[in-house]
Amino acid sequence: MARISINIKEGKIKKNDTVIGIDLGTTNSLVAIIDKETKLPKCLSKTNETIVPSIIHFSNNNTITVGNKAKHFLSTEPQNTIYSVKRLLGRSYADIKEHASYGYRIIDDETKAMVKVEINGKLYNPIELSSIILKELKENAEVILNETISKAVITVPAYFNDSQRQATRDAGKLAGLDVLRIVNEPTAASLAYGIGLNSEESKTIAVYDLGGGTFDITILNIQNGIFEVLTTNGDTYIGGDDFDRKIIEFWCTQLDLNIQEIEKNKGLYQLFRLKAEDVKKQLSTAENAHTFITIDTIIWPLNISLKDFEKSILPIVEKTINCCQLALKDAVLV
Prior knowledge:
alpha+beta; six-stranded mixed beta sheet; disordered N terminus
């Protein structure tokens, strides 16, 4: 893999320009600025919602809602509710067909062109869908800051290829943003922890990034304000979404259900997925998690222990460790 570097010393931004930083995530997104008074990074929140779920809902008359309001439609209108669109950016149907288990309809046009999603009889590409999320973040920032925003920096996974990076830029432009720079997420994470801000600093670090839909391990060399990606490894189909599926599989075994049959009912599967996400969060602070689903007046209890959860996801975690070992080997560090 070619080495990629970024120089944080240089820039062409006017002193008084407000530039927002955007993390366009598979599961959640957020927007931040550098506070002009404190000079520290600050996440912008609207109505106490710092994190915006990367979910879009189209009503039957094509009214669009984004974020938590759209999340409620995952189980009731799965065909009109878009999630995990980041996994589709810059991808053809051939790239994603093995992982195309979504509640909405992805079109197989038998070409190498970027996939399209059909909603209410209209076709959208992932750039257009991503731009809707970016526009929501931009407008939220404008309301909070009470000013017009036109410039942004957007983060992307280090392994994103040129097509995916350009697709991200195009989505930003479509949202009304001048994307000043596409920054690798590991570089952004390093800066967030203060690593590399000292121009005299010289070190090699590893960033393990397990997100909602993707995983990557990146080895960075930082010297004189220059961030150089020595190597990156990972899997574009490992993330929190896959942990959720493991929980659903566990429940299906418990209840003697066939997960393939559950998947055919898009609304029911999304309901299971939302419940799985909830119990996953519970297990962050508890040894056991409990919830239930009510279907046709029948209550299905859904339980899982932290021990069973960790056992279920172990094969996925081991895959990430293997990626880490390969990255260290490629960087000639082991």
